Amino acid sequence: NFMLTQPHSVSESPGKTVTISCTRSSGSIASNYVQWYQQRPGSAPTTVIYEDTQRPSGVPDRFSGSIDSSSNSASLTISGLKTEDEADYYCQSYDSSNQVFGGGTKLTVL
Amino acid sequence: EVQLVQSGAEVKKPGESLKISCKGSGYSFTSYWIGWVRQMPGKGLEWMGIIYPGDSDTRYSPSFQGQVTISADKSINTAYLQWSSLKASDTAMYYCARQEEVTSDFDFWGQGTLVTVSS
After folding, report:
1. Is B67 in contact with B112 (CB distance < 8 Å)?
2. Which end of chain A has fewer CB atoms surrounding its CB within 10 Å, N or C?
């Protein structure tokens, strides 16, 4: 089984850009899609990025995803931060038999 | 409109059994996977397993294999998560979510079912 490791927390000011990383412990990050979810307190998660880089309709283009094979990691970048972006963010991927969530990153916009 | 509606909150004692449900509507229930995700208080998301109601193909996380049973009744568009003997450590919010393929994202989620296990 593999793991996805995220920073526990990040913080940044409104209007700035923040990047959240997600490092895969084994197996190639590029071989299996990575999804990113946003979860606000008291709510179910919602997808902000799917298939590494794709944005669902309704998600602002301030949200973008990328893959870096050299570090075996995926990244979620949020530009032009707004206070409404404050939430927990989770990456998720899979292998042939299992699906895994990262531990989650708490984004504070202060 | 796609909806996944979960059964209500439960309060149980250790050792009791429980079955919670997730009813899908607004789409072809047999053509999508339904996954279950645990979120313990103040903690992150954990993938428990998935079922394809079309043929009942079921897969479990190694962490949850043998601890829970996932099933579905396609005649009533409902998936289930059940325990035969609850522990205090099963206290958590449980979400069901829809997935087109096992490689896809979970695109629709239920509202969650809070399970509290306490003596």
Report:
1. no
2. C
